[in-house]
Amino acid sequence: MSTDALGLREQKKRETRQAISDHATRLFVEHGFERTTISDIAAASRVAKMTVTNYFPRKEDMALDHHEEFVASLAQTVRGRARGESALAALRAAFLAAVERRDPVIGFTGEPFARMIADSPTLVARLRDLHEQREEALAAELGGDVEARAAAAALAGVHRVLFAELMRRTLEHEDADAVAAALEKAATTAFGLLEPSLGGYAVREA
């Protein structure tokens, strides 16, 4: 098979995966995650049930389709920090930048999507698991020892609190700009609390 043919095949796979995710999310928002079946999603996407499960072994991952990026995000930010920059400084800057661009990975998904998650025990549990995976990935990036795990718990904990605050305000019908302004203030406070203990931790050598 030629390189061009392989490229088209991969593009088709990506398009199919995105189409399934889009149809699934629409159905989840309209009818609720728990009440929407794989058969419903397959019918809406015009594919076989097996095709749906081949692309998404877990039903939850059709709703939380940024889960891989979410889990890897903190570790990637720390890995890419500048020389002379601490893990805390890098994560704070990255979070504030994500707030400015209203990044869906940190929770800017709109009220209908936030409501879909809040109303589903399955999605709430899955999101809790993803937060834990994200913390574990950050701990591994920081070295994996007790000190690294303690630092990761504190740093990921701030992100978890801010995510919950974003969700709460979204569910209370605040618009994205108001949520962003409140979140920027909350992030400055929350990350500032860690400055005395972690401001000089994991500073990349100049």
TrEMBL record:
Name of protein: TetR/AcrR family transcriptional regulator
DNA-binding region(s) in UniProt: 37-56
Presence of the UniProt keyword Disulfide bond in the record: no
Superkingdom of the organism of origin: Bacteria
Coiled-coil ranges from the UniProt annotation: none
Annotated SUPFAM superfamilies: Homeodomain-like (SSF46689)
Residue ranges of every copy of the HTH tetR-type domain listed in the record: 14-74
Keyword set, alphabetical order: DNA-binding, Transcription, Transcription regulation
Keyword Transcription: yes
